[in-house]
UniProtKB/TrEMBL annotation:
Molecular function GO terms recorded: ATP binding; ligase activity; metal ion binding
Domain ATP-grasp stretches: 90-297
Signal peptide extent: none
Superkingdom of source: Bacteria
Protein name: Carboxylate--amine ligase
SUPFAM superfamilies from the UniProt entry: Glutathione synthetase ATP-binding domain-like
Length: 399
């Protein structure tokens, strides 16, 4: 059956371009994409055989969004994969009487302070700092400073002492007057839990074991797939997601595991990003993007069984600012049963940031295979062979 999808978007992403648009095409759906930056989306979809109808709308204001969508006729499906727009999209779906995420859960996932209040963890401390408010807190150091409504690791910063907190708060507020959260620094091994829900049941796809860059920033460097996370670990995370109200759709949850205790860091009420979602679809041999859309059309999720394979995603970052003058080519190959896809993300002419919490990706390696040792060996071989140059004849350092 041909359905009309109202796709609510901010900036163009690989998830939409390479995932959800092809999925909608396979389903035979019409896509009407609402965004406040239509020119960026027109450019992103140049050359695609299947393009959405792009409509300019103030997607951040739910009243304006409802009016924009309603003026083009009631859609059959409402969906967004944007961190920024989950609450607005949930309210839009509710307005039209369509399947959607619980808007309170979407709000709690986006707002770090609301998430902490809802979880009511007795031993976890946090404080919200509003712009130009006194930055002093009584929390013991170290702490983490992050935007209250931040996305992933942007502006997240390790704070060892009061002087660093003062300087960092002033720096952030000099760029953007946004509420900040000061919260307890959690130690332990970082994991993710990837889930799908149909509004009644939630199924675990698996998770990633994550290696971060050294402080003060929290940049994900390597993600290793874990198909069989311990049952107790999964149960603790699912119980906390239930407390937040997470149900319908995909959810990407980051947490640390220490002393048999799972402590949430943040909940992204959407697919995992940064190309891990593309890897998951190949790894699980499952039409992930199609099923996310089908769930938002009201379908129920069948019992899922996945192949037990190993995989990793590794990101290459710039370590200096400048302009890319030399970059490698995209590659896809198979070696010793391992399929490797390498994608250049900073091409010749790209401006890159190598010194802040928004460090530029140079490239990403996605690898799937039967043997984790072969994955690591292939990764090390590739790292030695890849080279970028940034505004100088010297090779850029990568990590």
């Amino acid at each position: 059956m041909s359905l009309t999808l109202a796709l609510i978007a901010y900036l163009p992403t690989d998830a939409v371009t390479q995932g959800f648009l092809p999925a909608a095409q396979k389903l035979g759906w019409k896509v009407m994409l609402y965004t406040d930056v239509p020119e960026l989306h027109h450019k992103a979809y140049e050359g695609l055989s299947f393009k959405p109808e792009i409509i300019e709308a103030d997607v951040f204001q739910v009243q304006s969004l409802i009016e924009a969508v309603a003026s083009h006729g009631k859609p059959d499906v409402v969906f967004s994969n944007s961190d920024h727009l989950q609450t607005q999209t949930a309210l839009l779906a509710e307005y039209f009487g369509l399947p959607g995420k619980p808007w309170k859960a979407a709000y709690r996932a986006k707002n770090k302070a609301a998430m902490r209040r809802q979880l009511e963890a007795p031993d976890f401390y946090h404080t919200v700092l509003h712009p130009d408010q006194d930055w002093h807190t009584n929390h013991p150091y170290p702490v983490v400073l992050k935007p209250r409504e931040g996305v992933a690791s942007r502006h997240a910063y390790y704070i060892p002492d009061a002087l660093t907190l003062r300087d960092r708060v002033q720096q952030v507020w000099s760029e953007e007057k946004i509420p900040l959260v000061v919260e307890q620094y959690l130690t332990g091994q970082l994991y993710t839990l990837e889930t799908l829900g149909d509004g009644e049941t939630i199924q675990v796809l698996g998770g990633f074991k994550t290696r971060l860059s050294p402080p003060p920033y929290f940049l994900e460097e390597t993600m290793e797939w874990q198909p069989d996370l311990p049952a107790e670990m999964q149960q603790q995370v699912l119980e906390q997601l239930a407390k937040l109200g997470v149900g319908l759709g995909a959810c990407h949850t980051e947490f640390v595991w220490k002393d048999s205790q799972a402590s949430l860091i943040e909940v992204n009420y959407r697919n995992i990003g940064d190309q891990c979602d593309l890897l998951l679809q190949d790894l699980l041999e499952f039409p992930l993007f199609e099923w996310v859309l089908r769930l938002h059309a009201g379908e129920k999720l069948p019992a899922l069984e996945f192949p037990r394979k190993h995989a990793l995603v590794h990101y290459l970052f710039a370590k200096e600012d400048g302009t890319v003058t030399v970059a490698p080519e995209n590659q896809t190959f198979e070696r010793n049963g391992t399929i490797t896809q390498f994608q250049v993300l900073s091409k010749v002419g790209s401006q890159v940031d190598g010194t802040s919490s928004k460090r530029s990706f140079l490239g990403v390696l996605r690898m799937i295979g039967p043997d984790p040792v072969v994955l690591q060996d292939t990764l090390h071989d590739l790292e030695r062979s890849l080279e970028w140059r940034i505004a100088s004849p010297h090779p850029v350092l990568i990590s």
